[in-house]
Amino acid sequence: MKNKSVKIGRNDDCPCGSGKKYKNCCRNEKQEISIRDEYKNRYGVILKTPEQVAGIKRAGDLLMSIMNRVEKMIKPGLKTDDINTFVHEETIKAGGICAPLNYRGFPKSVCVSINEVICHGIPGERVLEDGDIVNVDLTPILDGYYADASRTFFVGTPGADAKKIVAVAAESLKRGMEALTPGATLGDIGHAIQSYAEGCGCSVVREFVGHGVGIDFHEQPQVLHFGKPGKGLPLVPGMVITIEPMINLGKKELHVLEDQWTAVTNDGSLSAQFEQTLLVTQDGYESLTPYEL
Ligand code: MF3
Ligand code: CO
Ligand code: CO
Questions:
Q1: Distance from the Cα of residue 291 to its chain's centroid
Q2: CA 132 to CA 158: how far, in whole Å?
Q3: Structure confidence by residue, pLDDT tens digits, 43-69
Q4: In whole angstroms, what is the distance from residue 158 CA to residue 130 CA?
Q5: What angle do the packed helices 50-73 and 80-93 form, to 10 degrees?
Q6: How far is it, in rounded angstroms, from Cα 152 to Cα 134?
Q7: Which pTM value belongs to this model?
Q8: Which of 47, 67, 237, 247 could hold 169 in an S-S bridge, CB 3.0 to 4.6 Å?
Q9: Using a 6 Å CB cutoff, which residues line ligand 1?
């Protein structure tokens, strides 16, 4: 006998027996599955399940507990290698792994970037000095899940330039996060950051970008910190991305030192950065590495 498939209308009772209308029940789930497939197959973006989100959040909790203790250590005279030792030991103690260590040959467990260093500073013998600004970027892996976040701290008493660049970088991340609304696109994030930071007379680094994160260190999509409203991939619930604008007090151009990692401003001006791991939700976002900005 020929199988006559019956078409279910949007307003019919859902065949799963839930008592809800089909459109509010399994039809919707089917759509969600197709969005998941589309983002994976077309864009390489892995939308996270609630279980994966819970895992990334646990990694984020560990990250923030270490970050809060690093904050208390920051003072003039501290060697950057002492931050590395602390982060490494505390991560291991908690059952985690430091993702930076041996990542594409990176030799240490954390990035520590002082003053004109934009990102990827390698901890070593350099000592923090009064008036410095220092970014600490942590990426623990816990039970296979990655969280990625950074903050820029003042060392001792900041001067006017230090205060300005740290404030602008923090507000840049905040504006980027506030762009995470239903229907928004990646371009909206970049535009929110770029228009604010440039409006303050600062510049936005182009060479390094935010990224998908959670199952791996750097996943799709790339999250540019500059761009045009409405352009780029639409945000959908289940996306987990970082936003991590690097903002320079002077010009945006940079070079990488001979160690192949340390990125510094060409004009020697100060650079600051803040980063959080962010889940896109139905009505906005949730930070999985939350802290005040
Ligand atoms: N944590 C950085 C980021 O935000 C990446 C550092 S890569 C490393 O994406 F190898 F330098 F650790
Ligand atoms: Co990152
Ligand atoms: Co990072």
A1: 13
A2: 7
A3: 999 999 999 999 999 999 999 999 999
A4: 8
A5: 140
A6: 5
A7: 0.91
A8: 247
A9: 100, 103-104, 106, 111, 120, 137, 139, 148, 242, 244, 275
